[in-house]
Amino acid sequence: MGVPLNQAIKVGTYVLKQHLTGRKRYPLVLMLEPLFRCNLACSGCGKIDYPAPILNQRLSVADALEAVDECGAPVVAIAGGEPLLHREMPEIVEKILARGKFIYLCTNALLLEKKIDQYTPHKNFCWDIHLDGDRDMHDRAVSQEGVYERAVAAIKLAKAKGFRVSINCTLFDGTDPARVAGFLDTVNEIGVDGVMTSPGYAYERAPDQEHFLNRQRTKELFRAIFRYGKERKAQGKTWKFNQSPLFLDFLAGNQTYKCTPWGNPTRNVFGWQRPCYLLGEGYAKTYKELMDTTDWDKYGVGNYEKCADCMVHSGFEATAVVDSVKRPWKLAKLAIQGIRTEGPMAKDIPLDGQRPAEYVFSRHVEQKMAEIHAKPQAAGAAE
Ligand code: SF4
């Protein structure tokens, strides 16, 4: 298992406590996006096409800590944009760790060698390196040659310095499962602590709209990958995933899950994103406002056209974690039998009642631009 025992126990206890106190909606992972600016321009990214004045915005240390305190999630994933471009990132990390949280700092690793000595290894801190497969797959995904080699060198450096390192691997249509299996072998041999994998979400603003997976193809792809996983296991090799086994079982088409969009609430330079990490359909000023005023029933597979193909971990991992805590026997069965890769798949949620997509993206961009022009001094700490 790629998740350390202390984290599994702390998160499990937290979920149990929420359940026992009858709390219906609670966060598991805060998705903190302190900036949208990046030093890459990946074809599947839906975050970097904002106008320059918005890309120049940063969440301050105080904003970041307020978000952590307001929502109370036990885990914080720091994403972006590229977080290592934020000059106050070491202070943000140090102060979040001091609050007893677990941190995954997501990075493309291009700046890791230069900045690594600003950070100290900690049992609750993990570098989460973006690698979408082997050299060709990754360099194609990030639209730049040589990035894979630099990321692998950074992973080795981080491991040598005593850090925990995981991989964040997004898969797209046309992916060859045999190559993914080879990639998982490689990162295992390098000694990474776990891999987080997921199909890409079809961001409406991503430059490449042709390579997103639909639900059926996602399930077929993961079944094919897990078949290779079984072969490797028979040879005594085990891939380490940073995800709950039931989420992986869901990816293989064996679980019917609704998403838990409030499980990974997202705070970025616009505010608290409604309804989830993947869809930006409005923003709330506070976490409480997000939770109290979002019409959650309007979203999710079967409810909304933009959700139809979503199987992303930020939406469904929380569902799987809660299911694991409420029904531990499902986990035990999975541990004994492994992920089923043959036979019929679990029934999927029907889409015939879903409401059509709304395209509201430009509204909050216009609003933010007007705010920036009105108060240029509020632009924050740009590096
Ligand atoms: S299915 Fe859920 S997590 Fe996925 S985009 Fe829709 S609301 Fe967000």
From TrEMBL:
Residues 20-232 form the Radical SAM core domain. GO terms for molecular function: transferase activity. It comes from the Bacteria. Keywords: Iron, Iron-sulfur, Metal-binding, S-adenosyl-L-methionine, Transferase. PROSITE patterns: RADICAL_SAM (PS51918). Its cofactor is [4Fe-4S] cluster. This is Adenosyl-hopene transferase HpnH. It comes from Acidiphilium iwatense.
